[in-house]
User: Fold these one by one.
Assistant:
Number 1:
Amino acid sequence: MRTIELKKSITGSNEEAAEALREEMSQKSILFVNLMSAAGAGKTTLLLRLAEDLKGKADISVIEADIASDIDALRMEEIGVKSIQAHTDGMCHMDAGMTRRALAELKGDDKDMIFLENVGNLICPAEFDTGAHLNIMLLDVSEGDDKPLKYPLMFAESDALVITKTDALSYFSFDVKECSERAAVLNPGINIFAVSAKTGEGMGKLEDYLLKKRRSLL
Ligand SMILES: Nc1nc2c(ncn2[C@@H]2O[C@H](COP(=O)(O)OP(=O)(O)OP(=O)(O)O)[C@@H](O)[C@H]2O)c(=O)[nH]1
Ligand SMILES: [Mg+2]
């Protein structure tokens, strides 16, 4: 597992860089997924579960983006998932140029899916296209079902909303239906999943969604 230091990209428009990256990944038939959420919503835990469940169905690798520490990439390596830790020089998001450099270091061209675990927050990552085919956001049940009202851009920019930690639903007054309706107002096409990476509940539907998206690139 390696760690790379990334600085802000300075050349060209982010939109053009993102589009070019997406096209390259499509040419290689690699599904590239950008995972976004507040800190601690369960991105790494979900990736660990996906990696186990998708064994034999899809080969994955991971870019872990954080402002500091190598903990998440080491957790992926511990279960045999190729990963790279990207430090964002204090920035709260990844852009397409930073993502391209991380992908080059990852050398994941033989993979079926590559996941970018973006920096944990619900604000800046929504503003930057990373070149991913899919933007998937996580919201854990302890965060509250009002979050679509407070962070509308994140919900509007995401192809899928994954409500996480459903095993803890009984401890929080989180209304899955209400949250889903609020998200759908902002983004009528959003795909919604409710999962527990701890118990595996709901993971099958999310995995089928990812496998279908990957197949569409073949
Ligand atoms: N009960 C329960 N706990 C979970 C679940 N998923 C994650 N957690 C716990 O939530 C905490 C944060 O999980 P992480 O996977 O590290 O979250 P993250 O989004 O990767 O965090 P950052 O990388 O710091 O933004 C850990 O203590 C996990 O064990 C779940 O499905 N159920
Ligand atoms: Mg993490």
Note: Residues 43-44, 72, 117 surround magnesium ion (ligand 2) (CB under 6 Å).
Number 2:
Amino acid sequence: MIDYRQLSKIELHCHLDSSVRISTVAEIGKELGLSLPDPIETGLVAPETCMDLADYLRRIDLALEVMQQRKHLIRIAREFVEDLSADGVVYGEVRFAPQLHMREGLRLQEVVEGVNEGLAEGARATGVHVGLILCCLRHESAESSLAIARLAAANANSVCGIDLAGDEARYPGTPHRAAFDLARDAGLRRTVHAGEARGAESIQEAIEVLGAERIGHGVRIEESPKVLEYVREHAIPLEMCPLSNYQTRAVSSLAGHPIDRLLRKNVCVTVSTDARTVSQTTVTSEFERLEKLFDWGWDEFLHCQRNAANGAFVSSATRSRLLGMLTR
Ligand SMILES: [Zn+2]
């Protein structure tokens, strides 16, 4: 088996609140006097398969409780970058929804500053380059999403893009159009979770209505040959997260995951974790799993990583540097 850990890797899709170290939740939780589940993993780690995406997302509730103070956001963001480094990730994009971190009085701007401070500390210590994406949430109002887009625009020096996350099965993307228009006009990049809990029509909506430049997951894209062909032709990257996609039941088995078929059709697929803690995974172990499942090797690894470099929300100079790091 290829030693993926040693290889320089890029990750495009990972949620900060789903990737908090278990030991850190335990430590801060104790400090805050929270009543923690025993064992604590039951509150933070998803079972092999959840009932659905909403069930999977409930594993984030406890982590959010320890992410309400500036010092804790700094620590968690710094540790996240250290974890990327240990995984061999040289460029990682991390996303989170700032509006979920205001329970103890932090303002949106303070939340972003706290996370940025931790990411910068981690980057200085490890040399990992990190991009920050702010998430709008599907169940929230158009006005809330606009506030997130404005926040991203006001922090464009440290935020590379916006995302739409949350319960795709029950909430369409169209109401969030104004936020995505604002982000585009501010020069921010756009990605949208789609084709995970709903079908290919949701991917089409993300591209046509929200101007998505990348699609989070997109595992159900084969349901529409037309959408599939559009995404292939325009090389729109799919941020696929195989283990998470199985756990949320977006695919019924890992062996049936479309990533291998899509790669063979020259669709721009990439490999990420989605949730390092909730799914107990790393980019290293995602590629190990793909090697076992589909007999992937160097060609597939480098192909996906080049796709990721080409789809990263970075400057052209950084993109060239990243492409240069991807070697055997
Ligand atoms: Zn996600």
Note: The first strand starts at residue 9 and ends at 11.
